[in-house]
Fold:
Amino acid sequence: NAGVTQTPKFQVLKTGQSMTLQCAQDMNHNSMYWYRQDPGMGLRLIYYSASEGTTDKGEVPDGYNVSRLKKQNFLLGLESAAPSQTSVYFCASSQDTTGELFFGEGSRLTVL
Amino acid sequence: GENVEQHPSTLSVQEGDSAVIKCTYSDSASNYFPWYKQELGKGPQLIIDIRSNVGEKKDQRIAVTLNKTAKHFSLHITETQPEDSAVYFCAARDFGNEKLTFGTGTRLTIIP
Structure:
């Protein structure tokens, strides 16, 4: 049972480059989320999708975009990476927006 | 919006002793308070949660208490074991909000 799968697990970018973090869940969950984790800052919500085809901003959305075209996939894009976006990114899913969150194992992104 | 403060940021406990982690929240409308455990290199995982209609909940060696008047809740781990070493996050959400707000995390180390 895979649960929530994130790719890639590690990525190094140069300032200004773009990339997409991919997240897939096999639990038929309606809601999906992207968080970033920084030392001393806890988990901060970037964007979330309550259901397929919908997305909403979280606490720290600037510099990111998302796409939820399929129920099982949630993509996080960085159009022009900045060193401040160096972080560990976690995708999560839940049955609905009031349910338990199931997290992936994280994607470590370094922007030079 | 909701603001969750978590203390302490680090905690070292002798194996077999108890550990307590405390969180305070700002929004009196919050009514759901989960705790997540993050092991090294993994994503967070729900270990226990409590809703505002109860003051305490136990699951084996883990318990959570809630004081709605004071707007704080705590995680209690008894008879600690080496596998309890991890980062613990508290979180809060009000009924009408789709988003969880996380605390900044506590790194718990169990000393053999």
Observations:
- The longest strand of chain A covers residues 31-38.
- The mean pLDDT of chain A is 95.
- The CA atoms of residues 68 and 74 of chain A lie 5 Å apart.
